[in-house]
Structure formats: C-alpha cells, structure tokens
Amino acid sequence: MSPGNDSALTPEPSVFMAPAAQSFTGRYRFTVRHLFLGVAFALLVLAVVVPNSLPDITAAAMVLAAMLALPGLRIGPGFRTLLALYACTVIVTLLYMVVGGVHDAPQEAQLQVVAIYILSPLLWTLVADGLLRRLGADRLIDWLAVLSLLCALSVGLFFYLYLTRGAAAVTFFFEGANVNLTEGFAGATMHVYGSLIFLCGGFFGSPELIRNRLMRLALLAMLLVCALTSGRTALILAVPLGWFLGLLLSSRTTDRRQKSPIFRLIRYGVPMLIAVTTALFLLQAYTQISLTRVLDAVSTKLASGGGSARVGMGHSLFAGILANGGLGSGHGVGVDFVSDAVHPWRYELVWLATIYRVGIIGALIYALPFVLYMASVIRLAYRHRLPPRHKFMFCGFVCAFLGTNTNPYIEAFVFQWMYVIPLVALAIEYPKALKKGRE
Known about the structure:
This protein is an all-alpha fold. The chain is about 70% helix and about 0% strand. It is built from 15 helices and two strands.
C-alpha cells in the first residue's frame, strides 16, 4: 500500500453522511488544516530564526502542532519503516537510561534524555508529516527560503545592536553574547548559526528551487555573508560542501532540463560566483573583514582537530570508551573532561559521546535511520529518480549531520527539525519514487 492510496480504503463520506454532516466535516477539516499550518509556521519561526530564545513557547508550539497534525496522519510503508527505526532507538534509550541510573546519572540528565531522545523526535516526526502532506515539500522549501531571509536579517540586527548598544541589547538572541572583530576576523555567538548550516547547505546545493532570480542571488549572498561573519567552521564549510553536493547530484535528478555538463556548471557556478562577489564587495565596503583571515582561521581550526578543548574532550571520551569496552556507560554519565559546568554529561563531539554512552551497537542503531536515508538518496540518484526537492533536503542534511561533530545540535529539540524533516520527506515519497524508477 503506497502512502497516496490510504484514502482509497476509506469510504466516501457522501455514502454515509447527510449533507449537513458532510458540510460540518469539511469545515472542521478546513479549520484544522489552516490552524495546523499557522501553528507550524510559528513553530518554524521560533525553531529556525530564534532557536533557544523562547524555549518554553517553542516546546508548547511543537506539542500543539503535533496534536493538530494527528488527524491527517497517514502511515504508509516508508513512514512505517521510519517508525520502526524510531522504536529501536527508544529501546536503546530506555535500556541505557537504566544503565545510567546504575552509574548514578543525575535525575535531571535522565529527564532531558526522555525529552530529547524520545519525545522530541516523535513530535517533530508528526509535525513534519503534517507539513509535508498538507503543504508539500516544494512549498515547505519556499517557507524555508523566507525563514532564511529572516535568519539573515536577525544576524544583521544582532551585529548592529551589539556594536551600538552592547551585549545587554542582544540577550534575546543569546545570553552572554559576544562579537569578535579583530585583525580581519569576524565571529559571534548566536544560536541561529545552527539553523543556517542546514539552510546554507540546502540552498547552495539547490539554488534553482528559488524561482525568482533576484531573490535567489540576494539570498545566497546574504547566507554567505552570515557564514563568513559567523566564525563557525561548520557553517563556513556548509557553503562549498552544499554547492559541491548539489553540482554532483544535479545530473541525477528528475529535472530533465539539466542535460549538458557545461549547462549544469553554469547553472550552479554563476549563482555561486555572483553570491561570492556580492558578499565580498559588501564585506570590503562596509567592514574590515578579510576573507584570507577567515579562511586561515578555518584551516587552522581544522588542522588542530577543532581546537584544544575538543581534542581534550576527544581523548577523555576515547579513554571512557576503552574503559567500558565499547559497551556503553549509560545516558547521563560523563567522563573526567567537563565541557559544560551546568550539564557535565553533555559534549560537543556528539557521536563519540554517543558511543561512550550507549556503546558501539547502540550508536549504530541510533545512526541507522540516517545511514538508510543517505543510502536511499544515493539509490534514487543512481537511478536518476532523485527529485530536486530531495536534493535540497539531502545537501542540507549532510551539512547539518557533519555539524554534529562540532556542536550537539541534534541533542537540542529546537534543531531536530534539520534531521527529521528530510527523513520524513523521503519516507513518504520513497516507495513511489523507487517504483517509478523500475518502470
């Protein structure tokens, strides 16, 4: 049974309902649909544009959006597989919560594990399913383009307020905010940079999805300026990585207009060239930021393994993995290295920390949904059945997934949309896309 055929199993309301009942049902569904889309858009604004600024309101919006998505939920074969994989991760989580409890894990850590590893992914899955079925992936990408514009504007506002009124003026964006503008380098502390990793990867990988050419070039330039002034290695690298993945996959999409390699190179190279030229002109004209200084800082950080703090963290986590024999020490249990004084069980090297917590097998089960997602995209690309919208999702996902090696974005409920939406989008369409590829 394909996702699009569920309605075929449901009798037509007209056979069993009086006209008045049909009218009421139609109005009810219309109201729920629009109410869901309104709440979901508000949720995305909170999670994408101002993540962590209003966590309680964001959590409430996520719960409400998930509840409103339930009436339209359709469990097709791809979505059923995704739920089965989620159930496996829940089993691993519950098992290693018990192990963590045996090793005296704090109660606060256990509660956060339930919220981040069990509840939040399920709620985001329901919200993503509702958005993709009622809005569609293409329209959702249009939403993300608007949200990207808002993200860029928020970065500009942050710098302006900080430089003119001080750190107290930007506490809404980040508590204890800091901006570093020295010797041609730029860096700032903002949560929105996490969202921009996905958005830069997606839109530089699939710029053609922004249909208005002026909007396309303007948005790419703004995203590049945000990346270069962020001081975040993962965000800066998301631009060339997303562009390269998009160029690599462009000949494998269902967009038949892309036939000539030269045409593809022009189609992807020209927007990138214009965006880079515009961004460098703006930085040169209005700031003292040097591209050479920024790239030197990125290369130095990469060569040093992410900095001395992450190197020390990595050594301690490796030692912990060896000490528990790769079997896992449990959720909520930390090593000697303390990265966060308030939450000493959290670490920026997420996947290494995951192996320490739940062991090698547990980490593989956690990673399995992502591995299968990437394998499915590659399979569709190999068969020339990859829709451009999934190329966008894939490029953004890969950049965000690699970003988990620098910051624990995946362990923050406000950022889990970057990892859930691409999986749900493909789960809904994959069986149908694969079937078309066999015809």
